[in-house]
Amino acid sequence: MMRELETGIQFLRGVGPRRAALLERELGLRTLDDLIHFFPFRYVDRSRMTPISAIAPDVAYVQVRAKVVERKLISPKHLSVLVEDADASRMEMVFFKGVKWNYERMSPGAVFVFFGKPQVYKGRLNMVHPEVDIPQEGGLTQGSLTGIYPSTEKLKAGGVTGKVLCRMQEEALSRCLPEIRETLPDAVMQQLALCPLAYALRNIHFPLDAYALQKAERRLKTEELLFLQLSLLKQKYVRRNCEQGIRMPLVGAAFHACYRALPYALTGAQQRVVREIRADLAGGHQMNRLLQGDVGSGKTMVAVLSCLIAIGNGYQACIMAPTEVLARQHYENISRYLRPTSVRCALLTGSTPKKERKAVLAALADGTLGIVVGTHALLEDTVQFHALGLAVIDEQHRFGVDQRSRLWQKGPLGNAVPDAPVAPPHVLVMTATPIPRTLAMTLYGDLEVSVIDEMPPGRKPVKTLLAGPSKRAAMYRFLRGEIAAGSQVFIVYPMIFNNEKMEDVSNVERGYEEIVREFPLPDYKVAIVHGQQRPEDKNFNMKAFAEGRAHILVSTTVIEVGVDVPNASVMVIEGAERFGLSQLHQLRGRVGRGDRASCCILMRGEKCSRESVQRLELLCRTENGFEIAEADMRMRGPGDLEGTQQSGLPVALRLASPARDGRLLEEARAMAKRILEADPFLRDPANGLLAAELQKQQYAIKDYSKIS
Ligand code: ADP
Ligand code: MG
Question: What is the pTM of this model?
């Protein structure tokens, strides 16, 4: 059984121990099973050639069949080859690698098929490092579509070319396919109209035709997404079925006192979300809820009211923020909201002085402290609660999915106290990143989602402009006018990291020098904040700006979250094309918080591409965070949305992408729900395959309740 699947790839013809070691090192492939699950990332239709005269520059990949006219060694590391196709149209092929070898085979008169991305360089059409094939060779494919596999320089140097990989796949498949057994129950296959696994594996490598490839992709993607959803949702169903949550039936005096004293009425959306949370807390199951709301939508108030419910039932609450600055600001705001109540609140961060820290820890342990606000410091073992009932995690996307789960495994929050509750605390995760629905489903399949989709009244729209380098002088003139009218200005630089993954601050420091030259003392005061400063310097500068003593704050994205300076009505973002749209949207949410009309100026660099300009223009047109996030994900892929790197998923998605495969994801999720509704523990023999596969793949389950 499974003999072939477990065979090492070194036993394939023409591989051997050396190449096998290389394949394992470079691609992590060890067995034939690994190999046949290593899929092409795109396909070339070998039957379609583009005439050189029909090539539009800067388009996708094309394939041309052409004859070598002339080869020229420009330098030992630069080979230029002029080729001509059947219509006598010419273009240049350029090689900077494998120069010697390519020079030898590119003898004038030889005909090749070149595949690559065309571009125009100095007015001439060329292709850099095309894939080169000899026409008519191949014959490995079933149809005309040939899979192209991800590769590395070392692999190519070690002789493992695309063609060699194809040959290996061919042999591996013919040995393994008879052993392949279905991983999905019949009922699931039928309901989702999926093709069998063996057919899918065959056709993902060697598609019979475009239709077969489509079927294969659909089957394999759906399977990935289904197991992902099962692994995420199973937790939720199991929890719902057996795990007890802390029951919090009361609202309590503190809630009412705070609510009555609010200087404003809650928005409809805030009221709805508070009701949802109240129902969760009273329900007897552990709450795991994600609260999404655009910057400025008033999430803090919702968090405070939720904490007060916990307190009204005799429990404590904690609020965890990703940065010290944000924790402090939360602490200050929350303390203000708590003034009409008798609830005690404290701040605990890495820089809390020892004596104060000791007092906070003691008050947490004996229960006299109701709410603690802090950073990662809250996760340390020394932090013990008398009775933690609710944990609020703010702006959690900044933690990164991976990092967060590591944090949660790291240590229990408040255990080992004799009369502490046995049940895990409720968890409320808040994020300002308007995560598109499909991505939220992928990342937080086990969380319920609440959305604040309404802004508090009176918020002014932020007028957003895109400006090129030639507008710099005009931009400075505009800033002088605004400052003269009493406004303050943010100037934000992209965060750049050097090789050691340290924030490189030369960029923002150079910017600061220029701004100080343009806005000299004594008329102007300029503050600077970045990640490499000592905390006291950062706080000093931040405070100078928050209190209105500095006119301009030059910074990196450290100001992204939380900072509330109502008098700052202008934001300039330098090198705007280097940011994600969602990040820009969050940044501009820092202005428009006061009475002034506010604006955001996106300064683009000299080399900003047309695509980037289009992306940035979308931001000028709309202030809808969800629309922006969807567009961002479509254009850049989910991996680029901050903190949502796919590596953080409990299941590696090889083929499926939440950005592109939204519909398949919905289908898979609905199916996973149907299965778990009926059989939450997957104990039904009909679900045996699913249970076994889930276990086999060791889909590490990220359990958000394990913060307890
Ligand atoms: P978020 O954390 O969602 O970005 P905040 O909770 O910081 O937003 O709220 C932004 C601002 O809006 C704060 O100054 C807050 O006092 C104010 N605010 C919150 N809710 C309301 C409301 N219902 N009406 C008016 N102002 C509100
Ligand atoms: Mg906030």
Answer: 0.62
